[in-house]
Design brief:
TIM Barrel; 365 residues; alpha/beta; 17 helices; globular; eight-stranded parallel β-barrel
């Protein structure tokens, strides 16, 4: 199994590869696209400016560094659909990405997939989790559109992953195992995260300018402090929620108690995701204890979510995942491996894992 990690800055590439990732993924939010469609209409569905590279020149640097170190680069163009007016512009940007030397494209829009297949695009195409591959028929449909890897939606159970893998053994599968733990079904989700940048342009612009600057240590320190907030501080629901959106947009800067921050959760969601999870902020989310089950099911790539996370968080995630995969090779799956994963989690993140953050708590006790 290989690790796929997110980047939003050129200087993260070599650090993450040396930490253990075999592939990095990113997006580009060019000035041309943003001027036409704003950050909310992002070409990659990643709505915060901070989440993406700023130009295809930066992407060329990313691919050069990654290839020199023997790693691959994927670029997301995974908005769920593009209008007929947008599609020609998208194709121009795809051409720029391919010319930058990328290895694969992450696509959700069926029309874009079909167009790239007919044009004979010179790189692999991976079906985004937003493409909503729920079953084998969907998998075969995307395969006919030229897809060479399927990125599984977050909400699938392990049984559903196993069934899908058994029925399409010839298609490589990729699964999220860290962060991105959301109860929404991605292919059907219309939540707009990036309105903050539009609603508070000066405030958000100043903060994003700081967080997205080359002073990565400053950015990591700010968000790292929020990550370590004790439970009593997290109960300042609205304050913590807005702080998290400003300092780690769409991320897990703080875990607002749903008892304080959102009373509308259904009992089913509360039971599945726990009461210390807020849909507007997100939970850390971890499925690393299930690596053995995922490997047995046929998953070949395990993915870390969080293009907008600070570099220190991404490095911690990759090191944790690399250490867990090494432990899986040494000891195999089972209770001892699960205990080792929990120990690694506490060691790396300085906090104990909880069922509320577990991707598949029904399978890993």
């Amino acid at each position: 199994m290989e690790i796929l990690a997110p980047i939003n800055r050129v200087d993260e590439v070599d650090q993450l590869i040396h930490a253990g990732t075999a592939e990095v993924y990113c997006s580009v939010l060019s000035h041309q696209w943003r001027d036409r469609y704003t950050n909310v209409g992002s070409i990659s569905r990643e709505e915060f400016t901070l989440s993406s590279l700023r130009s295809y020149k930066e992407l060329e640097q990313v691919t050069s560094i990654a290839h020199d170190l023997g790693a691959r680069v994927s670029v997301a163009f995974n908005q769920d659909f593009y209008s007929s007016k947008q599609l020609p512009f998208v194709l121009k940007e795809v051409d720029q990405a391919v010319e930058a030397g990328i290895d694969s494209l992450i696509i959700a829009d069926v029309a874009l997939m079909a167009t790239l297949r007919d044009r004979g695009v010179d790189c692999d195409v991976h079906a985004s989790s937003i493409g909503a591959v729920f079953n084998a028929r969907a998998a075969r449909f995307f395969q006919r559109l030229g897809v060479s890897r399927l990125i599984l939606p977050h909400h699938l159970t392990l049984d559903e992953v196993r069934t899908l893998a058994e029925r399409v053994p010839d298609i490589p599968l990729e699964a999220f195992v860290l962060n991105a733990r959301c109860p929404n079904v991605e292919g059907f989700c219309g939540y707009l995260h990036g309105l903050l940048e539009i609603a508070y342009p000066r405030r958000a612009g100043a903060l994003f300018g700081l967080l997205g600057s080359r002073r990565g240590a400053t950015r990591s320190t700010i968000v790292g402090t929020l990550l370590r907030l004790p439970r009593w501080a997290q109960r300042f629901g609205p304050l913590a929620h807005h702080a998290s959106l400003h300092l780690c947009p769409n991320g897990a800067a703080v875990s607002v108690s749903c008892r304080e921050g959102d009373s509308a959760l259904t009992p089913a969601v509360e039971e599945r995701f726990g009461m210390n999870w807020c849909p507007n902020v997100g939970g850390i989310g971890c499925g690393v204890c299930s690596l053995g089950m995922l490997r047995e099911a046929g998953i070949s790539v395990v993915k870390v979510q969080g293009r907008n996370y600070p570099t220190a968080k991404k490095l911690a995630d990759v090191r944790f995942l690399r250490s867990a995969l090494d432990a899986l090779e040494d000891m195999g799956d089972g209770d001892a491996f699960h205990e080792r994963c929990r120990a690694l989690y506490s060691e790396i993140y300085d906090r104990s894992c909880t069922p509320a953050e577990c991707y598949w708590p029904e399978e890993v006790r």
